[in-house]
Amino acid sequence: MAINRQFRTCPDTGFKIHLPADKLIKWNAVTAVVFLLIGGIFGLAVALTRWPEVHLLDADLFYLALTAHGLDVLLVWIIFFEVAILYFASSVLLQCRLATPWLGWVAYILMLVGALITNVAVLRGDSSVMFTSYVPMKAAPDFYLGIILFAVGALLACFIFLGTLVIAKNEKTYEGSIPLVTFGALTAAIIAIFTIAAGAIILIPTLLWSVGYVGSIDTVMYKVVWWAMGHSSQQINVAAHISVWYALAAILFGAKPLSEKVSRTAFLLYILFLQIASAHHLLVEPGLSSEYKIFNTSYALYLAVLGSMIHGLTVPGAVEHAQRKKGLNKGMFEWLRKAPWGNPAFSGFALSVVMFGFLGGISGVMMGAEQLNIIIHNTLYVPGHFHGTVVVGTTLAFMALAYWLVPVLWQRELFLPGLAKWQPYLFGIGMGLASLFMMGAGTLGVPRRHWDISFADATLSHEFPAAAYLMMGMNGVAALIGGIGGAIFVLNMVGTLLLGKKKQPAPAKAEEETVAQGPIAVSGSAGAVSVPGTFTLALIFLVTFILYYFVNWNYLAGVWGLS
Amino acid sequence: MAEEEIKTGGGDAGEPIPFMQQVLDNPFLLLFLGITVPTVTYIIWGVMEVASIPVAQ
Ligand code: HEM
Ligand SMILES: [Cu+2]
Questions:
Q1: Nearest-by-Cβ selection for B31 from A176, A190, A526
Q2: CA A311 to CA A318: how far, in whole Å?
Q3: Does B38 contact A275 at a Cβ distance shorter than 8 Å?
């Protein structure tokens, strides 16, 4: 059959890989990494400007760099990588041909051209509206046009993913249900389709307004619809990086999910309830009722938070179970101590699970409560929170996956394996600290998106406590450490592609299960298990969570004296 | 501890597939739910509230 000639069998994993999918995965992943580099440099420039002693950029350049940073990392890096994950989780995991590869190239080109158009608009200097582009701030038309093209490309990629699921089902390339990792990717794709639809509803009129065809756009209306896109796109990331966690647990440990039923239900909670949390961006907006705010950010959203807590329990639980099965049964934590901490695919994954929960998760639930939100609204606490989600959570998880995926797909050895060992720690701990320092400064009232907190040339001034300056300096140092970690990652990836040694075909290991036969590609639960270590860790997490939550209520009570 | 392998997918002839599993195995139903719920509780509700704010005279 002609189609068979379009497949190769991966010598490392045993996957039957569709060649057109292989190529698309590679191009999307590489493009993602290039934009991570560009966006990361802007991020470092921003952090160095906010370090009062350094104050690197002038005000205009600062807002330009902040706009470019948000766009290039949050949108371009993450979504290109997610498209690679969608193709991987459908075509590779289901060992099925990718639906309409030509459309995949149309999608790729739309996304690339869109990203370039918006970058040019920002670098020109007339579109420093930051990635939220709140009206009535007006960017040049090509700023919006580029984002719209990018989004159309991403939407096509979601359809290709769904199409591939249909093909796999019709051609019966898998038995029973799709694997859990693919199910997580499906969750991400569904949220993405909602995200992009909302984006179209708001950005097309905004483009027309920027050109002059539409008179004005209501500012609150803009915020409501814009955040349906802006927030939901973060939930694509959560769903995608949790799938990556399950994938890495399966790849590195042969770990089966503790219960397919529980994990899939947790993803279903995401599909139903995660996107409505968009309302947490509107908590201080006048004109919207408390019923609306509280329903969308608390009552229903907590069901989605439950989903996250389930994943936070079942991912390490699956690893613990798999490790114990191999005999690492001593005490509570032998399974964890003897994990491959020197393998960046594991250390990145482990740090991502822990820091996403402790830094991003706890702070997110706190600030999503209507009453508490006012303490931190528009302060640096907000970027502190989301560097705990999208950077040490999503980005680190994607880096961890790349350490496994890139050598396997390209059949090359990692370029600098020695440095790679340290990279997740440098990037993870550097950015984790940056996240903490930003949250600390925010708690002291330091605003986000602010060029100069000393107000040197302002008519009205404000004195921040010395501790706030200290935090901003420490944030700069932490950002440098994280930046070095990020640079090592990019260097390693690019180096592996261009200069990495070709892998020697490994002597065939008889009888051993390949990755393709393992839990990443097959659905099925581990069955009845006990994971005492994971439960202990989960309890520590819950106690921290509860304490932190109450500390903030107490803090809120101190904001306004009553007598 | 006994290791039981639970296969999802109910390949066994005659055994009915549980309702929730049928839901979870249907991507287009999930897509419908994932778009409808937030469209109603977040977008439509929100837009209605904004639209009903009285205009300043
Ligand atoms: C070297 C790594 C990074 C450094 C040093 C860094 C640093 C910063 C700093 C200092 C801010 C400014 C906060 C403010 O003034 O309001 C910021 C904003 C932001 N960062 Fe990062 N960041 C890095 C990586 C990332 C990554 C990987 C992502 C996303 C995946 C990300 C997403 C964002 C977003 C969305 C903003 C908000 C922009 C805005 O307010 O318009 N950052 N970052
Ligand atoms: Cu949000």
A1: A190
A2: 10
A3: yes
Q: Phi and psi of A416, rounded to 5°?
A: -125, 75
Chain A's closest residue to B12, CA to CA, is: A176
Nearest to A383 by CA among A107, A78, A43: A43
Rounded Cα–Cα distance for residues A1 and A5 (Å): 7
3-state class of A8 per DSSP?
A: strand
What is the Cα A81 distance to its own chain's centre? Answer: 10
Q: What share of chain A is helix, strand, coil (3-state, %, to 5)?
A: 70, 0, 25
DSSP SS3 for A80: helix
Q: Say if CB A150 and CB A111 are below 8 A apart.
A: yes
Backbone φ and ψ of B41, nearest 5°? -80, -25
How many Cβ atoms from other residues are within 10 Å of residue A229's Cβ?
22
CA distance A22 to A201: 33
Residue A508: which pLDDT band, with cuts at 50, 70 and 90?
A: low
CA dist A26 and A369 (Å) reads 41
Cross-strand bridge partners of residue A525: B6
Q: Which residue has the tokens 């990392």?
A: A73
Ligand 1 atom 35, closest CA:
A70
| Residue whose CA lies nearest to ligand 1 atom number 6 | A43
**B48, two tokens:** 């209605």
**Residue-level pLDDT at A4:** 61
Q: What is the CATH number of the domain that holds A368?
A: 1.20.210.10
Task: Kindly report the pTM of this predicted structure.
Answer: 0.94
State yes or no: ipTM above 0.95.
Answer: no
Q: Which amino acid is at B16?
A: P
What is the rounded CA–CA span in Å between residue A33 and residue A29?
A: 6
Kindly list the residues from chain B whose CB atom is less than 8 angstroms away from the CB atom of residue A295.
41
CA A497: distance to chain centroid?
Answer: 24
- Number of domains observed in the structure of chain A: 1
Residue A514 within any structural domain of the chain = no
Which tokens is A280 given?
A: 């947490």
Residue B9: per-residue pLDDT: 44
The residue range of the domain holding A260 is 18-451+463-500+520-562
Work out the number of other CB atoms within 10 angstroms of the CB of residue A327.
Answer: 10
* Residue A507 domain flag: no
**Tens digit of pLDDT for each residue in A210-232?**
999 999 999 999 999 999 999 99
- Ligand 1 lined by A390 (C-beta under 6 Å): yes
Tens of pLDDT, residue by residue over A114-166, are 999 999 999 999 999 999 999 999 999 999 999 999 999 999 999 999 999 99
Query: For residue A506, is it within any domain?
Result: no
Q: What does the pLDDT read at residue A18?
A: 96
CA nearest neighbour of A62 among A73, A72, A47, A76: A47
